[in-house]
Protein backbone atom coordinates (compact mmCIF):
# COMPACT_ATOMS: atom_id res chain seq x y z
CA UNK A 1 0.00 0.00 0.00
CA UNK A 2 1.38 3.41 -0.99
CA UNK A 3 1.80 5.89 1.80
CA UNK A 4 0.32 9.35 1.12
CA UNK A 5 3.28 11.09 2.69
CA UNK A 6 5.65 9.30 0.30
CA UNK A 7 3.67 10.52 -2.71
CA UNK A 8 4.31 14.16 -1.92
CA UNK A 9 7.83 13.95 -3.31
CA UNK A 10 6.90 13.21 -6.89
CA UNK A 11 4.81 11.13 -9.24
CA UNK A 12 4.94 10.18 -12.90
CA UNK A 13 2.13 10.38 -15.45
CA UNK A 14 0.70 7.56 -17.53
CA UNK A 15 0.92 4.07 -16.06
CA UNK A 16 2.60 5.43 -12.93
CA UNK A 17 -0.23 7.86 -12.20
CA UNK A 18 -2.87 5.23 -12.86
CA UNK A 19 -1.18 2.75 -10.53
CA UNK A 20 -0.74 5.29 -7.76
CA UNK A 21 -4.30 6.57 -8.00
CA UNK A 22 -5.66 3.02 -8.01
CA UNK A 23 -3.59 2.31 -4.89
CA UNK A 24 -4.89 5.43 -3.15
CA UNK A 25 -8.39 4.28 -4.04
CA UNK A 26 -7.67 0.87 -2.47
CA UNK A 27 -9.37 -0.83 -5.39
CA UNK A 28 -12.63 1.11 -5.00
CA UNK A 29 -14.71 1.59 -8.12
CA UNK A 30 -15.70 5.10 -9.19
CA UNK A 31 -19.32 4.66 -8.10
CA UNK A 32 -19.80 7.52 -5.62
CA UNK A 33 -21.29 10.95 -6.22
CA UNK A 34 -19.53 12.73 -9.10
CA UNK A 35 -16.77 15.28 -8.62
CA UNK A 36 -17.69 18.18 -10.90
CA UNK A 37 -14.69 19.66 -12.71
CA UNK A 38 -15.41 22.70 -14.85
CA UNK A 39 -13.58 24.25 -17.76
CA UNK A 40 -14.10 27.65 -19.39
CA UNK A 41 -12.84 27.17 -22.95
CA UNK A 42 -13.04 29.02 -26.30
CA UNK A 43 -15.20 26.40 -28.02
CA UNK A 44 -16.19 28.93 -30.71
CA UNK A 45 -14.48 32.01 -32.12
CA UNK A 46 -10.92 32.46 -33.40
CA UNK A 47 -9.35 30.14 -30.80
CA UNK A 48 -11.86 27.28 -31.17
CA UNK A 49 -9.19 24.92 -32.55
CA UNK A 50 -7.38 25.14 -29.22
CA UNK A 51 -10.62 24.93 -27.25
CA UNK A 52 -11.48 21.62 -28.87
CA UNK A 53 -8.07 20.16 -28.00
CA UNK A 54 -8.30 21.39 -24.41
CA UNK A 55 -11.66 19.63 -24.10
CA UNK A 56 -10.16 16.47 -25.61
CA UNK A 57 -7.37 16.47 -23.04
CA UNK A 58 -9.86 16.72 -20.18
CA UNK A 59 -12.04 13.99 -21.67
CA UNK A 60 -9.16 11.52 -21.98
CA UNK A 61 -7.79 12.26 -18.50
CA UNK A 62 -11.24 11.91 -16.90
CA UNK A 63 -11.76 8.52 -18.57
CA UNK A 64 -8.41 7.26 -17.30
CA UNK A 65 -8.92 8.64 -13.80
CA UNK A 66 -12.40 7.14 -13.54
CA UNK A 67 -11.11 3.77 -14.76
CA UNK A 68 -8.60 3.89 -11.88
CA UNK A 69 -11.36 4.51 -9.31
CA UNK A 70 -11.86 8.27 -9.63
CA UNK A 71 -11.00 10.43 -6.63
CA UNK A 72 -11.36 8.05 -3.69
CA UNK A 73 -14.26 6.29 -5.41
CA UNK A 74 -15.94 9.38 -6.85
CA UNK A 75 -15.95 9.69 -10.66
CA UNK A 76 -14.97 12.94 -12.34
CA UNK A 77 -17.66 14.63 -14.42
CA UNK A 78 -16.60 17.40 -16.82
CA UNK A 79 -18.67 20.55 -17.44
CA UNK A 80 -17.76 23.02 -20.21
CA UNK A 81 -18.74 26.67 -20.66
CA UNK A 82 -17.87 28.44 -23.93
CA UNK A 83 -15.80 31.63 -23.62
CA UNK A 84 -16.24 32.43 -27.36
CA UNK A 85 -14.16 35.53 -28.21
CA UNK A 86 -12.95 35.62 -24.60
CA UNK A 87 -12.25 38.84 -22.66
CA UNK A 88 -12.64 39.59 -18.95
CA UNK A 89 -16.45 39.83 -18.75
CA UNK A 90 -17.20 36.72 -20.84
CA UNK A 91 -14.65 34.55 -19.05
CA UNK A 92 -15.74 35.75 -15.61
CA UNK A 93 -19.36 34.86 -16.38
CA UNK A 94 -18.37 31.44 -17.74
CA UNK A 95 -16.31 30.70 -14.63
CA UNK A 96 -19.17 31.72 -12.33
CA UNK A 97 -21.67 29.58 -14.27
CA UNK A 98 -19.41 26.57 -13.76
CA UNK A 99 -19.74 27.11 -10.01
CA UNK A 100 -23.39 28.20 -9.80
CA UNK A 101 -24.89 25.79 -12.36
CA UNK A 102 -22.53 22.84 -12.14
CA UNK A 103 -21.14 23.09 -8.57
CA UNK A 104 -17.63 22.75 -9.94
CA UNK A 105 -15.15 22.11 -7.15
CA UNK A 106 -12.23 22.68 -9.50
CA UNK A 107 -11.85 24.59 -12.76
CA UNK A 108 -9.16 23.59 -15.25
CA UNK A 109 -8.87 25.89 -18.25
CA UNK A 110 -6.66 26.06 -21.27
CA UNK A 111 -6.02 29.70 -22.09
CA UNK A 112 -8.28 32.73 -22.38
CA UNK A 113 -6.97 36.03 -23.71
CA UNK A 114 -7.82 39.54 -22.59
CA UNK A 115 -8.87 38.60 -19.06
CA UNK A 116 -6.31 40.48 -16.93
CA UNK A 117 -6.42 37.30 -14.79
CA UNK A 118 -9.90 38.08 -13.37
CA UNK A 119 -10.41 34.30 -13.29
CA UNK A 120 -8.29 34.24 -10.14
CA UNK A 121 -10.84 36.42 -8.33
CA UNK A 122 -13.69 34.07 -9.21
CA UNK A 123 -11.69 31.13 -7.85
CA UNK A 124 -10.71 33.04 -4.71
CA UNK A 125 -14.26 34.26 -4.01
CA UNK A 126 -15.62 30.72 -4.26
CA UNK A 127 -12.70 28.75 -2.77
CA UNK A 128 -12.25 26.39 -5.72
CA UNK A 129 -9.07 25.00 -7.21
CA UNK A 130 -8.19 26.84 -10.42
CA UNK A 131 -5.59 25.61 -12.93
CA UNK A 132 -4.98 27.44 -16.21
CA UNK A 133 -2.51 27.76 -19.08
CA UNK A 134 -2.78 31.48 -19.86
CA UNK A 135 1.03 31.59 -19.72
CA UNK A 136 1.14 35.09 -18.25
CA UNK A 137 3.55 36.78 -15.86
CA UNK A 138 0.52 38.77 -14.65
CA UNK A 139 -0.67 35.56 -12.96
CA UNK A 140 2.50 35.54 -10.85
CA UNK A 141 2.20 39.25 -10.10
CA UNK A 142 -1.40 38.90 -8.98
CA UNK A 143 -0.67 35.84 -6.86
CA UNK A 144 2.16 37.64 -5.07
CA UNK A 145 -0.08 40.63 -4.38
CA UNK A 146 -2.09 38.45 -1.95
CA UNK A 147 -0.94 34.81 -1.66
CA UNK A 148 -3.52 34.04 1.03
CA UNK A 149 -6.39 35.15 -1.19
CA UNK A 150 -5.13 33.39 -4.33
CA UNK A 151 -3.92 30.23 -2.57
CA UNK A 152 -5.96 27.94 -4.86
CA UNK A 153 -4.77 29.41 -8.20
CA UNK A 154 -2.14 27.57 -10.27
CA UNK A 155 -0.62 28.31 -13.65
CA UNK A 156 0.24 24.94 -15.18
CA UNK A 157 3.22 26.21 -17.17
CA UNK A 158 5.93 28.88 -16.90
CA UNK A 159 4.90 32.49 -17.64
CA UNK A 160 5.47 33.94 -21.10
CA UNK A 161 8.30 36.21 -19.94
CA UNK A 162 10.77 33.32 -20.21
CA UNK A 163 10.19 33.03 -23.94
CA UNK A 164 12.27 36.21 -24.35
CA UNK A 165 15.61 35.25 -22.76
CA UNK A 166 15.01 31.63 -23.80
CA UNK A 167 14.84 32.64 -27.48
CA UNK A 168 18.06 34.66 -27.24
CA UNK A 169 19.82 31.81 -25.44
CA UNK A 170 18.68 29.47 -28.22
CA UNK A 171 20.05 31.72 -30.98
CA UNK A 172 23.37 32.02 -29.17
CA UNK A 173 23.56 28.22 -28.86
CA UNK A 174 23.04 27.87 -32.64
CA UNK A 175 25.95 30.23 -33.26
CA UNK A 176 28.20 28.60 -30.66
CA UNK A 177 27.55 25.14 -32.10
CA UNK A 178 28.15 26.45 -35.66
CA UNK A 179 24.68 25.40 -36.78
CA UNK A 180 23.99 28.97 -37.92
CA UNK A 181 26.23 31.73 -39.25
CA UNK A 182 24.09 34.88 -39.07
CA UNK A 183 24.64 37.52 -41.81
CA UNK A 184 24.40 40.29 -39.18
CA UNK A 185 23.43 40.76 -35.53
CA UNK A 186 19.99 42.29 -36.10
CA UNK A 187 16.79 40.81 -34.67
CA UNK A 188 13.39 42.00 -35.91
CA UNK A 189 10.55 41.63 -33.39
CA UNK A 190 6.91 41.55 -34.49
CA UNK A 191 4.33 41.30 -31.70
CA UNK A 192 0.57 41.61 -32.02
CA UNK A 193 -1.55 43.89 -29.86
CA UNK A 194 -2.19 41.61 -26.86
CA UNK A 195 -0.57 41.17 -23.46
CA UNK A 196 1.03 37.78 -24.16
CA UNK A 197 2.73 38.86 -27.40
CA UNK A 198 3.90 42.21 -26.07
CA UNK A 199 5.44 40.78 -22.88
CA UNK A 200 7.45 38.26 -24.93
CA UNK A 201 8.51 40.88 -27.48
CA UNK A 202 9.65 43.28 -24.77
CA UNK A 203 11.54 40.52 -22.96
CA UNK A 204 13.51 39.92 -26.19
CA UNK A 205 13.99 43.62 -26.93
CA UNK A 206 15.25 44.46 -23.44
CA UNK A 207 18.01 41.81 -23.48
CA UNK A 208 19.25 41.66 -27.09
CA UNK A 209 22.52 43.41 -26.29
CA UNK A 210 23.23 41.11 -23.35
CA UNK A 211 23.32 38.18 -25.78
CA UNK A 212 25.39 39.96 -28.44
CA UNK A 213 22.57 41.04 -30.78
CA UNK A 214 21.03 44.36 -31.74
CA UNK A 215 17.47 45.47 -32.33
CA UNK A 216 16.38 45.91 -35.93
CA UNK A 217 12.66 46.37 -36.51
CA UNK A 218 10.08 46.45 -33.70
CA UNK A 219 6.61 46.47 -35.27
CA UNK A 220 3.30 45.85 -33.50
CA UNK A 221 0.52 44.44 -35.71
CA UNK A 222 -3.23 44.16 -34.98
CA UNK A 223 -4.72 41.12 -33.25
CA UNK A 224 -5.81 39.12 -35.18
CA UNK A 225 -4.23 39.93 -38.57
CA UNK A 226 -3.43 38.33 -41.91
CA UNK A 227 -2.23 41.44 -43.75
CA UNK A 228 1.55 41.26 -43.45
CA UNK A 229 2.50 43.34 -46.50
CA UNK A 230 3.55 46.60 -44.75
CA UNK A 231 5.61 44.72 -42.16
CA UNK A 232 7.29 42.54 -44.79
CA UNK A 233 8.19 45.64 -46.81
CA UNK A 234 10.07 47.02 -43.80
CA UNK A 235 11.85 43.71 -43.24
CA UNK A 236 13.01 43.64 -46.86
CA UNK A 237 14.36 47.18 -46.64
CA UNK A 238 16.65 46.25 -43.73
CA UNK A 239 16.98 42.44 -43.59
CA UNK A 240 17.66 41.03 -40.09
CA UNK A 241 19.48 37.84 -39.16
CA UNK A 242 16.40 36.60 -37.28
CA UNK A 243 12.71 37.47 -37.28
CA UNK A 244 10.75 36.84 -34.08
CA UNK A 245 6.97 36.91 -34.62
CA UNK A 246 5.35 36.76 -31.19
CA UNK A 247 1.78 36.76 -32.52
CA UNK A 248 0.31 33.30 -31.94
CA UNK A 249 -2.75 32.51 -34.08
CA UNK A 250 -1.85 29.64 -36.46
CA UNK A 251 -3.89 30.83 -39.44
CA UNK A 252 -2.30 34.28 -39.32
CA UNK A 253 1.23 32.89 -38.96
CA UNK A 254 0.70 30.60 -41.95
CA UNK A 255 -0.29 33.68 -43.98
CA UNK A 256 2.93 35.41 -42.89
CA UNK A 257 4.94 32.58 -44.44
CA UNK A 258 3.00 32.47 -47.72
CA UNK A 259 3.51 36.23 -48.07
CA UNK A 260 7.17 36.08 -46.94
CA UNK A 261 8.43 33.40 -49.34
CA UNK A 262 7.96 35.17 -52.71
CA UNK A 263 10.74 37.56 -51.66
CA UNK A 264 12.40 36.14 -48.53
CA UNK A 265 15.16 37.72 -46.51
CA UNK A 266 18.13 35.60 -45.41
CA UNK A 267 16.66 35.34 -41.91
CA UNK A 268 15.75 32.61 -39.49
CA UNK A 269 12.01 32.84 -38.86
CA UNK A 270 10.84 32.14 -35.32
CA UNK A 271 7.17 32.11 -34.39
CA UNK A 272 5.20 31.84 -31.19
CA UNK A 273 3.10 28.79 -30.29
CA UNK A 274 0.74 28.82 -33.31
CA UNK A 275 2.91 26.52 -35.46
CA UNK A 276 2.20 23.73 -32.95
CA UNK A 277 -1.39 23.49 -34.23
CA UNK A 278 -2.43 21.47 -37.29
CA UNK A 279 -4.03 24.54 -38.90
CA UNK A 280 -0.59 26.09 -39.42
CA UNK A 281 0.58 23.20 -41.59
CA UNK A 282 -2.78 22.72 -43.30
CA UNK A 283 -2.92 26.35 -44.44
CA UNK A 284 0.78 27.02 -45.09
CA UNK A 285 1.82 23.63 -46.53
CA UNK A 286 5.34 23.83 -48.10
CA UNK A 287 5.66 27.47 -47.05
CA UNK A 288 6.06 26.50 -43.39
CA UNK A 289 9.08 24.22 -43.94
CA UNK A 290 12.01 25.69 -42.02
CA UNK A 291 9.97 27.67 -39.48
CA UNK A 292 11.17 27.43 -35.88
CA UNK A 293 8.81 27.88 -32.97
CA UNK A 294 8.86 27.26 -29.26
CA UNK A 295 6.55 26.49 -26.41
CA UNK A 296 7.12 26.48 -22.66
CA UNK A 297 4.56 23.68 -22.47
CA UNK A 298 3.71 20.90 -24.87
CA UNK A 299 3.71 17.13 -24.97
CA UNK A 300 7.31 15.96 -25.19
CA UNK A 301 8.00 13.60 -28.12
CA UNK A 302 9.66 11.06 -25.85
CA UNK A 303 9.09 7.45 -24.85
CA UNK A 304 7.42 8.58 -21.64
CA UNK A 305 4.49 10.18 -23.50
CA UNK A 306 4.25 7.61 -26.30
CA UNK A 307 1.16 5.85 -24.91
CA UNK A 308 -0.64 9.16 -24.40
CA UNK A 309 0.15 10.34 -27.94
CA UNK A 310 -1.01 7.05 -29.45
CA UNK A 311 -4.24 6.96 -27.45
CA UNK A 312 -5.00 10.63 -28.12
CA UNK A 313 -4.83 10.28 -31.89
CA UNK A 314 -6.66 6.97 -31.92
CA UNK A 315 -9.49 8.60 -29.99
CA UNK A 316 -9.63 12.07 -31.56
CA UNK A 317 -8.20 11.61 -35.05
CA UNK A 318 -4.87 11.44 -36.88
CA UNK A 319 -4.54 15.24 -37.02
CA UNK A 320 -5.54 15.89 -33.42
CA UNK A 321 -3.11 18.24 -31.64
CA UNK A 322 -1.99 16.17 -28.67
CA UNK A 323 0.62 18.85 -27.93
CA UNK A 324 -2.27 21.17 -26.95
CA UNK A 325 -4.61 18.67 -25.31
CA UNK A 326 -1.72 17.54 -23.15
CA UNK A 327 -2.00 20.73 -21.11
CA UNK A 328 -5.43 20.13 -19.63
CA UNK A 329 -4.71 16.39 -19.57
CA UNK A 330 -1.80 16.94 -17.18
CA UNK A 331 -3.73 19.59 -15.25
CA UNK A 332 -6.61 17.23 -14.46
CA UNK A 333 -4.28 14.37 -13.50
CA UNK A 334 -2.28 16.66 -11.20
CA UNK A 335 -5.48 17.84 -9.53
CA UNK A 336 -6.97 14.35 -9.16
CA UNK A 337 -3.85 12.88 -7.56
CA UNK A 338 -3.53 15.86 -5.23
CA UNK A 339 -7.19 15.66 -4.19
CA UNK A 340 -6.82 11.93 -3.46
CA UNK A 341 -3.68 12.59 -1.40
CA UNK A 342 -5.51 15.36 0.48
CA UNK A 343 -8.37 13.04 1.46
CA UNK A 344 -10.87 13.82 -1.26
CA UNK A 345 -12.29 16.48 -3.53
CA UNK A 346 -13.81 19.64 -2.11
CA UNK A 347 -17.02 21.49 -2.93
CA UNK A 348 -17.33 25.21 -3.72
CA UNK A 349 -16.81 27.39 -0.62
CA UNK A 350 -15.24 24.55 1.39
CA UNK A 351 -12.08 26.49 2.16
CA UNK A 352 -10.64 23.96 4.59
CA UNK A 353 -10.57 21.06 2.12
CA UNK A 354 -9.68 23.23 -0.86
CA UNK A 355 -6.66 24.49 1.05
CA UNK A 356 -5.56 20.90 1.77
CA UNK A 357 -5.74 20.10 -1.95
CA UNK A 358 -3.82 23.28 -2.76
CA UNK A 359 -1.07 22.32 -0.34
CA UNK A 360 -0.81 18.87 -1.93
CA UNK A 361 -0.60 20.43 -5.41
CA UNK A 362 2.23 22.71 -4.25
CA UNK A 363 4.21 19.86 -2.72
CA UNK A 364 3.64 17.30 -5.46
CA UNK A 365 6.37 17.33 -8.11
CA UNK A 366 4.38 15.93 -11.02
CA UNK A 367 6.03 14.43 -14.09
CA UNK A 368 3.39 14.68 -16.79
CA UNK A 369 3.52 14.21 -20.53
CA UNK A 370 4.56 17.88 -20.77
CA UNK A 371 7.48 17.39 -18.41
CA UNK A 372 7.84 18.52 -14.80
CA UNK A 373 5.33 20.63 -12.90
CA UNK A 374 6.94 21.94 -9.73
CA UNK A 375 5.20 24.99 -8.25
CA UNK A 376 7.35 28.10 -8.07
CA UNK A 377 6.44 29.74 -4.73
CA UNK A 378 6.88 33.12 -6.44
CA UNK A 379 3.66 32.78 -8.35
CA UNK A 380 2.48 29.16 -8.27
CA UNK A 381 3.45 28.60 -11.90
CA UNK A 382 5.85 25.99 -13.28
CA UNK A 383 9.60 26.60 -13.26
CA UNK A 384 11.11 27.06 -16.74
CA UNK A 385 14.11 24.90 -17.73
CA UNK A 386 16.83 25.89 -18.58
CA UNK A 387 16.29 29.67 -18.49
CA UNK A 388 14.87 29.96 -14.99
CA UNK A 389 16.10 26.79 -13.31
CA UNK A 390 19.06 24.62 -14.29
CA UNK A 391 17.82 21.35 -12.79
CA UNK A 392 15.71 19.53 -15.44
CA UNK A 393 14.10 17.40 -12.74
CA UNK A 394 12.46 20.52 -11.31
CA UNK A 395 11.58 22.54 -14.42
CA UNK A 396 9.36 22.31 -17.48
CA UNK A 397 11.41 22.26 -20.68
CA UNK A 398 11.28 25.31 -22.95
CA UNK A 399 10.99 23.40 -26.22
CA UNK A 400 12.22 24.63 -29.61
CA UNK A 401 10.82 22.80 -32.61
CA UNK A 402 11.21 23.11 -36.36
CA UNK A 403 8.88 22.24 -39.21
CA UNK A 404 11.23 20.36 -41.53
CA UNK A 405 8.48 18.70 -43.57
CA UNK A 406 4.93 19.99 -43.21
CA UNK A 407 3.58 16.49 -43.87
CA UNK A 408 5.04 15.18 -40.60
CA UNK A 409 5.16 16.31 -36.99
CA UNK A 410 7.72 19.03 -36.18
CA UNK A 411 11.14 18.05 -34.85
CA UNK A 412 12.32 18.90 -31.34
CA UNK A 413 15.72 20.60 -31.70
CA UNK A 414 16.30 22.09 -28.22
CA UNK A 415 17.03 21.98 -25.33
CA UNK A 416 19.80 19.48 -25.90
CA UNK A 417 18.70 17.16 -23.10
CA UNK A 418 15.36 16.56 -24.86
CA UNK A 419 16.23 17.12 -28.54
CA UNK A 420 15.42 14.38 -31.02
CA UNK A 421 16.83 16.17 -34.11
CA UNK A 422 19.13 19.02 -35.13
CA UNK A 423 18.16 22.25 -36.83
CA UNK A 424 18.18 22.40 -40.63
CA UNK A 425 18.79 25.70 -42.38
CA UNK A 426 15.47 26.87 -43.87
CA UNK A 427 15.17 26.31 -47.63
CA UNK A 428 15.05 30.06 -48.34
CA UNK A 429 18.47 30.69 -46.73
CA UNK A 430 21.40 30.35 -49.13
CA UNK A 431 24.19 28.37 -47.49
From TrEMBL:
<keyword id="KW-0813">Transport</keyword>
<dbReference type="Pfam" id="PF13458">
    <property type="entry name" value="Peripla_BP_6"/>
</dbReference>
<dbReference type="InterPro" id="IPR028081">
    <property type="entry name" value="Leu-bd"/>
</dbReference>
<dbReference type="InterPro" id="IPR028082">
    <property type="entry name" value="Peripla_BP_I"/>
</dbReference>
<dbReference type="InterPro" id="IPR051010">
    <property type="entry name" value="BCAA_transport"/>
</dbReference>
<feature type="domain" description="Leucine-binding protein">
    <location>
        <begin position="34"/>
        <end position="371"/>
    </location>
</feature>
<dbReference type="InterPro" id="IPR006311">
    <property type="entry name" value="TAT_signal"/>
</dbReference>
<protein>
    <submittedName>
        <fullName>ABC transporter substrate-binding protein</fullName>
    </submittedName>
</protein>
<keyword id="KW-0732">Signal</keyword>
<comment type="similarity">
    <text>Belongs to the leucine-binding protein family.</text>
</comment>
<keyword id="KW-0029">Amino-acid transport</keyword>
